[in-house]
Amino acid sequence: MSAVPNEIAIATTERMVLAPARYVLLPVAHLLTGYTVKAMERKIERGDWEEGKVWRHAPDGHIMIDMQGYHRWVESR
User: What whole-number distance in Å separates Cα of residue 70 and Cα of residue 76?
Assistant: First the structure.
């Protein structure tokens, strides 16, 4: 019996633990919130979501949604 099948069996029985991310890209925020990417872009453009509170620019220029800030925004309404 080869060692490879045993290694595969061990690797598939291990569990991965994922922690929620505070900052997520717009497509991930879409999956988490239900808002389309375009709807979130409009909220940012109109100023409904303040930079530094609900979103920010990552060092590479991408827009990141702060999920804690998003939750605060939802609960403030």
Answer: 10
The partner residues of 66 in beta bridges, in order of sequence, read 23
Task: Name the pLDDT band for 77 (thresholds 50, 70, 90).
Answer: confident
Q: CB pairs under 8 A, 24+ apart, for 58-64? A: 58/23, 62/25, 63/25, 63/26, 64/23, 64/24, 64/25
Render pLDDT for 45-71 as a digit per residue (tens, 0 to 9): 999 999 999 999 999 999 999 999 999
Strands of the sheet containing 55-57, edge to edge, are: 23-25, 63-66, 55-57
pTM for this entry = 0.76
The structure tokens 């991408």 sit at 62
Q: Which residues pair with 24 in a beta bridge?
A: 65
Q: Which helix (H) or strand (E) holds 4?
A: helix 3-13
